[in-house]
Amino acid sequence: MHNIFVVIVFVVLSVVASTAAPKIASPLGGCASMVDFPIIAGHGDAAIQAIASSSLANQVLNYVPDPSDSNNATVPLKVLLISVHPPHGGGSAHSSRELAVGLRSLGHTVVHVAPYAKEDPNIPNEQYADLLWMQANFPWDTLDIQPEAQNVMDSFIAKVYAERGPFDVAILGRESMLWHLPALRKIHGPAPIIAVVRGAYINRLVSEEKIEPSLRERLLNLYRSADRIVCIARHLTHAVIHAAGPSVAQKTHFLSNPINIPIEIPSESLLTADALNRAPTYLVDTRRRDANETIRLIMPAQLKSRKRPIDAIEAMNLLVNVDKLDVHLTVCGSGPDAGRMRTLIAEYGLENRVLLKGHVKREEVLAVMKESETVLLFSDNEGRPRVLQEAIAAGKGVVAYDTPGSHEVLNEWGHDFAAWPIGRLVPIGDVEGARRAIANLAAYFRSEQHAPLRVTQPPSSLEVLHDWDRSIRQLL
Predict the structure, then answer these.
(1) I want to staple 102 with a disulfide (CB 3.0 to 4.6 A). Which of 44, 120, 358, 465 is the partner?
(2) Sorting pLDDT into bands at 50, 70 and 90, what band is 53?
(3) DSSP codes joined into one string, 69-125
């Protein structure tokens, strides 16, 4: 029944938005209709869209491990996870930690080797027996790795393996860890190695970026050398097969991150899954905003060039100083662009309009998100951004640049693969478009058209972890 309800709501909203009469009064003055920013906005990266038409790539999109294929389904395994860990590495760090914790909850032993940079101000403060910190000049944003850093990390991994191994399976938790696959293979032997693709490398390899040919081929050979390639987004499976060739198609699979999304669901709003085993749904964001209420925005992001945090300040300048809106932005994150952001905030007179909180714990990010109405994401390269999944689960508006990853999240939410009706995608770098999208959503939240949204619950973390478990066992 809830699917029928969602369809009815979608149709009603679409009809209302497309008619000339019920326009939303825009804070910019004049009117803005919901149709100004279509629910399914943009088309992502053109190269990715071309790849998506490949029938070969489509074979891997709906991969669900078959329980009957699992070997020794109850035997605990020893897993070596080489990946980032909070407070280093953004969303991929949180996802890697959740994978490690989740696999441990299923009875497995997981030794997590996590690099951190010497100059990073966020000193690792989380310590436990199976988390081993590795200090190295890790390639956070570059495709290549310096020989010294590679030697340091390869040696550390070999030492861990000698002391804690052997392991049944090794997982390289992000693409930059592929550089350690050859050294790992020497000590791990024929035991399986899984490479997790989050988009940082492969999105660049299939883009129009000029990459030195020998570096490109070295990277692609590393993808090919993995025993399984797990992509956290569907568009990434297309990209991997397109770049690395058809030989990787059968071992390239989509498995989402096992994200624990803490959401407050009133018991009376939860619908039980129906006989067709569809996912439960729940009502969110039931409060209509007061016309004079401050527009509260949040941008959780590392403050570096790929995340384009400067664009958020430019958009705030237009909203506050040109459009004269009562708007406030909280930025949760740290990074090299923080200084430039502070300079612009002072130059534009936004000291009371933009708060840079710096690096904060995830719990604080979610607390700020709860009080906000719209979440911003201005990255130019994303795999499957978890912050947007958290925003939708909390019933928040979204304004994001139209990367394939953001496009996938906003248009394929939950079990029903439904578009998120209060999500707005704008072209990368289009600050003016972001400004209009923010104002458009603010007008909607304060209009008579605003109504509670029914959200389909995403796959549970436990579901995803069992898929991971079966996927690993198939390789043994």
Answers:
(1) 465
(2) very low
(3) G-SSTTS--EEEEE---TTSSHHHHHHHHHHHHHHHHTT-EEEEEEEE-TT-SS---
